[in-house]
Amino acid sequence: MLKKSSFIIAAILIYNTAFSQTKSCIHLLSQMNDSIKKINTLKMHIYAIERVEKSYLSANSQIKINSSPRKLYFINPKKKLEILHVPSEGDKAIVKPNVFPYVTMQLDPHGNLMRKNQHYTINELGFEFISKSIAFTINKDKEGAKHFKYHGKIKKNGVNCYFIEYENPHYTYVDYTVGKKETVTSLSYKLCVNDYLVRYKNDLINDFGFLKEGKVIKVPTLYCKKAVVYLAENTLLPISLSLFDDIGLFESYEFTNIEINPHIKDEEFTTKFKSYKF
């Protein structure tokens, strides 16, 4: 009888711990979402590692963003690459590369030149897309909340953080028949799965046009197999995010020098700003 009672108590403790972890994760992610919604302007540095086929590419960049209306300035200081995008003034982004012929160009953010060897477009820069990605995960994984674990507070890059992890062992790939006028991006958004993983699995890394209607491709059942998120305790914003598939790490982002709602002059979203090289 004592052994049976001990077993029941242990089971209750395990259940309550799991429930507490789930509740803590959802509460923290909800607070993160609220913090992101309060961002009107943003400045920060991004260190990105992305798997492209079987190699990893890394990049350091700096961004300025005005949320509404959307305005973006991006610079990779090492490559001396600058991008300015103000969607209300046209679909094209203004790009100043540091390669021959060294002239400023207007390029489609969704086109081959700007997306080559990139997991995302410039439209996904900022914290809003991270919030959407987590929402995609929970939406796609009907038991998503149960697969999140809160590991407590930890110091990451010198910042006190909440450490959250998501993992679903049932992650796999299934067949999908391409519909009319679908691109990898459009079907990925529709299915709440990761754009890059669809490209990688189907040898479509740099194919950004319409796919052949009726073509059968493999798509992941979930946005990712595993995710590791660190939320800063003081701002409840992510300072580190790593995503994994069945192979391993496929992208990781570190956010530093974060300035929330700084004053950014209108001129800083024009090619006339004195420190730019357009």
3D structure, described in words:
With about 280 residues, this protein is of the alpha+beta class. The chain folds into two domains: about 1-40 and about 130-250, no CATH class; about 40-125 and about 260-270. Helix content is about 25%, strand content about 35%. It contains five helices and 13 strands. The protein has helices at about 1-35, 110-115, 130-140, 185-190, 195-200, and strands spanning about 40-50, 55-65, 70-75, 80-85, 95, 105, 150-155, 160-165, 175, 215-220, 225-230, 240-245, 250-260. The longest helix is centred in the N-terminal third of the chain and has 36 residues, at about 1-35.
Distance between the termini: 79 Å
Q: Indicate the multimeric state.
A: single chain
Task: Tell me, briefly, the overall form.
Answer: globular
Instruction: Report the average pLDDT across residues.
Output: 88
Major sheet: arrangement of strands: 6-5-4-3-2-1-13-12-11-8-7
* Helix content percent band: 10-25%
Query: How much strand content do the residues show?
Result: 25-35%
Task: Record the SSE blueprint.
Layout: H1 2-37, E1 41-52, E2 55-66, E3 71-76, E4 81-85, E5 93-96, E6 105-107, H2 112-115, H3 128-140, E7 148-156, E8 159-167, E9 173-177, H4 184-191, H5 195-201, E10 216-220, E11 226-232, E12 238-244, E13 249-260
Antiparallel strand pairs: 1-2, 1-13, 2-3, 3-4, 4-5, 5-6, 7-8, 8-11, 9-10, 11-12, 12-13
Give the key terms:
two-stranded antiparallel sheet, 35% strand, alpha+beta, 13 strands, 2 domains
Report a brief summary of the structure.
This protein is α+β, with helices and mostly antiparallel strands and 278 residues long.
